[in-house]
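In the previous chapter we treated chains in isolation. Here, by contrast, the input contains two separate entities that must be folded as one system, with a combined length of 911 residues.
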Amino acid sequence: MTRREFATVGAAVAAIAAMLLVYSQTRGFGWDEGFHLLAARLIDAGKRPYADFIFAQTPLNAWWNALLMRLTGYGWRGPHAGAALESAGAVWLVADFVLRRAPVGARVWLAIAAAASIGLNQVAVNYATMSQAYGLCMLLGVAAFRLCLEGRAFLAGVAAGAAASASLLTAPLGLTLFVWLAFRNARKAAAFVLGALVGLSPILWYLAIAPKQLWFEVVGFHLYYRQVDWSGWFLHDLEVLTGWLDSGQGMLTIMLAGAGIVLGRKRREIVLCSWIAIAYTLYLSATHPTFAQYFTVALPFSAILAAACLQELDERRPQRWPAYVVTGLMAAMLGRTVWQQAANMSWANLETVAAEVRRALRPGDTLYADEHIYVLTGVMPPAGMEWGSSHKIAMPLDQAHLYHVLPQAELDILVKRGGFAVAESCDEDEVKRLGLADLYKQSKQIGDCFVFHELKAR
Amino acid sequence: MNSKPDKLLLGAVCLAITAALLIYSQTEAFAWDEGFHLLAARLILAGKRPYADFLFAQTPLNAFWNALIMRVTGVGWRVPQMAAALETAGAVWLIASYILMRSRLSVAIAVAVLIGLNDVVVWYGCIPQAYGLCMLLGSVAFRFCIGGRALWAGLAAGAAASASLLAAPLGPVLFVWISIRSRMRQSLAFVAGAVVGLSPVLWALATAAHRFIFDVVGFHVYYRQVQWSGWVSHDAGVMTAWLDSGTGLILIGLALAGAWVGRARDDIRLCSWVAGVAAAYLATAHPTFPQYFTAAIPFAAVLASAALDKVDGRWPAVVIPALMVAALSREIWQEHTDFSWATLAPVIQKVKEVTTPGARVLADEHIYLMSGIIPPEGLEWSAGHKIEMPMDRARPFHVLPQSELDKQIRNRLFDVLETCEESDVKRLILKPLYKNMEPIGDDCFVFWNPNRP
């Protein structure tokens, strides 16, 4: 690799990183990130996930966000910037991997095409630039893959374990790498296991201090409660799994990766990459309900497979245009999506809502709100209100207390009895169902959201 | 030269596509705009003349064709939709058989599937708007032009423009092509054929020139964009939609690649010009819609064949059909609960039930068609109401401006009123105007017994 090649690919990745950073600070928003940020806020305030509040994710990403908040201040901007940089890190690791392994001549453009396949993927841009674990998982996943191929099994284990500690979406990665190593070198496989234990230490820590809660929240919730209130999950999943057929980027990514699996089947690294991509696809397809963003964790591997396909084409007949076309198309498709999503909800909308909530709150008031509003206002949620989705866990109260769960029926009673001085919701159905307009004297609608205050006398 | 088994296999594929299109045309196919096309055919059948007797913002051949079908098979939507599906299938067959003569079986199969199972072709090539006919006539014109039969090429190109102005660029491109490459005689033959093909338009021009120009040109130039403030971003969305569609990406990607790698071939150069000019022209129809581009799809598919020609092996015949079938199945499954003719059946039934002989009825075009009620003057095409002009100017064009229509509604001049626009029910505060109202399905309402003072 020449200095010039390194600089060219580096410049392309830097441009992608800059775009991801800008997006993370302007448009980056996901409804589910609210509870991730709130969890980080609670950890920073001294609370422990599982032991002190319900948290249905493995803990590393929440810790990481808590650290970022501590360094950059409470809010979403620091964690968003962190996520964008993690994603950019994954893009760099993939581009550098392709650059080092592809033959001289086309390798710069192959590396740039691989970088574009991840960094300009619209799902990655939407989801890996916010505070959920997608960016971190991509970074740790591709790091584990590269370390494994370089024979640094212990460190590969650390990275794979840490990825699983950030999100269980990456669970198949460690298993695939372990099997791969076990077939080749038992000693390295053992080193990998040791490393994985280190990487999994955040989970092991909580398993030691709150085993019952951790098991229920990280495993039991997903097995028994995820599908509650979601009767159409089968059709939903089918729609997600076939979504690539109706997406230009999806079609391009899947076709190139599929061709890469076939064309690169004699290359050791491509075989490993293929197994990881296949294992991810099968596992993520089985998480009911599944979502398109879950598959971002597999994107670095599909990008390497896509580069393998382009490299094979180049070796058969030297030509650079496929790499140019892939890069150009990814950029055009992303541009179209960002333009079309310009009117979607963003943190800027919620900051207006949070300002209204702040105006309505008096010292000591209890607040019923979405997680984002707790984060933006700095108000601590009452016990059981740390995660909106947990209310669908219907169980007897003595059991619910152990897991810090407030079942929907109990919450409804609390709301209707006037248990919250201020209520905020961005779910109009919920506002109607609870009859909030009849409970409060004052209300204000801001976009899709509603703020209520001044309880009516009963 | 292709063998007989190849031809049989391609025939079987085309037959399967035809069967799929026919089934779709009789079950799911529906577009809101087809109502006024069918109603125009119904009015022609009843002796009315487009332009002269009612507002009609299209060239007339497709309406004449639908009227002929209705004359033979009875008034309704089924047979016109069946005919449209067969026209589309005809285009698939013409292009695929052409490719088989020039290339391998696997490429011809891929091309047949690229046209026949393209989602936009399926949605719109199976309804009685002119898309199927335009694709068929465009493919015929192309084959005649390549075959050196200029008179017939001109006839088909002229007829395509007579069916819809969306096909208008085809004739000029073919004419220039023929003029540059052959003797003057061929060009003249093309023009003579085109004049014959354009005879329905020429007849309309001769009988109601002023109205024809207003309806077919003036409306599109001055009134199409009315009540459509966001047409620029809408059009940009339509023009870039292929970037966000798996099958769109395959077709456009292959077509662009084919235009480049096949640039030394005569037929590919011609198709590049036709597809390029058509795309540029259709992009200027503000607002434009994806279905407009169906007229260019047969030509894009020929271009795609040039790219597929360069690919070794038979995989295009497996991978492309598999992807197209999977993508189309997904689309049909997702669109399954959308509006269809079956949704309208209870509305039609209710309108028939509450309409007494001689009653004045305001309804959507589909309801007029299927209930057998002839619409009052000015109500033949609901989109015509957005033409706001003084009544003395509007009357000669058979236009009833929205403001006038609203007055008539508020003055309770309609004995029965049907609408599938909830926003109109609210805007016109219809409920107090009628003694009886029945909502049907999620979207439609029938009002009857006006509360006349």
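Residues 347-455 of chain A form one domain. The interface with chain B takes residues 239, 242, 244-252, 325, 329, 332-333, 336-337, 340 of chain A (CB under 8 Å). Compare these points with the single-chain example from earlier in the chapter.
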